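Training component of the fellowship. As part of building independent skills, the fellow (R.M.) carried out the full modelling exercise for a liganded target. The chosen ligand was threonylcarbamoyladenylate. The inputs are recorded below so that the supervisory panel can assess the work.
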Amino acid sequence: MSLHEIPEDIKKAQDLLAEGEVIGMPTETVYGLAARIDLPDAIKKIFTTKERPFFDPLIVHVGTIEQAQSLTSQWGKVAQALAEAFWPGPLTMVLPKSPAVNDMITSGLDSVGIRMPAHLKALELLKTVQVPLAAPSANKFGRTSPTTAEHVSAEFKAEKLFVLDGGPCEIGIESTVLLVKETEDKAELSVLRKGHVLPSDIEMVLKNIHLKFEFLEKIDKKESPGHMKHHYMPSIPLIVGTDKSVPAEELVKLASARIAELPQEIESVRIVKPAHGLKTFELMTLPEDPVLAARELYAQLRVSASTGKDCIVYYREDHADAERWEGLYDRLNKAASLIL
Ligand code: TXA
Ligand code: MG
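Fellow's submitted model of the complex:
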């Protein structure tokens, strides 16, 4: 591609990244706070801008499978099959890292999380820059993830962050994070974070091409340090109701008493505790379809949090196709100050 063919916004993003800046980058899941992986000061700037502790590793975004391979010390048949089936798309694979990958990106782990985003602007940027981009979600640590360029600009207003505008995100919740451990004849897979790509989707792909694998439940702190009790929290408390027969007024009264007992901070994430307790609430609802509900979740949390009410109330439903709702409920449970 010759220089004059590069769109202006992509060129600006490319220049800022080359200067060691961080920028807002659209993806199909949520917006990312991106920096070049070959510029350590820029990587550091991701953590300081986001106020993210250094123990939580970053996902590296690639534009090609070759780039992904170059970040790893082992790329087996299962990694190749999953990349071919799900990339570009919302699947992050955690694989043995190449020594060339900066330890700051991986928080000192010997693995690296990699994905190829399914967003035209992100892919165009990656193709132009020709260096993979590390990018966590573009929100302050522990808070609600952004699904529009406006969300990112508002979150980093003080920093006057440049945001590459790619419109609203189609998926709306973060990628599925899959730990992949391959030996010669078999792969061990563990879902570290639930998302749009389901274990049943992965199973189907690998079974079809007769690759041996097994799913292991493994969410220990060492292998998945980003697993905090709370995350994605809106600026006012979210109360998740599990029993629809309990009226919201009663739920809020109960929550008001209980919230005072919560600590100021849980695993580095600040808990919002209104000093005067909870009286008024905004009832949040989501579409009946899990794909649409995920797409709207973070925007709804932001809108509900900006109503001037004391808290948000959302009632969980029991859905028949439970697997499809798991990613979304994982986010809601972590965003909630209380589940009652
Ligand atoms: O959809 C997404 O994945 C978005 C967009 C921007 O691509 N990114 C995102 O990044 O959600 P972030 O930083 O908010 O979440 C990354 C999480 C970490 O908290 C951690 O749980 C996991 O991915 N992760 C990354 N690298 C890992 C590694 N080497 N080992 C285990 N977990 C890792
Ligand atoms: Mg995040």
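The panel noted the following from the submitted structure. The pocket of magnesium ion (ligand 2) is lined by residues 136-137, 145 (CB under 6 Å). The first strand starts at residue 23 and ends at 25.
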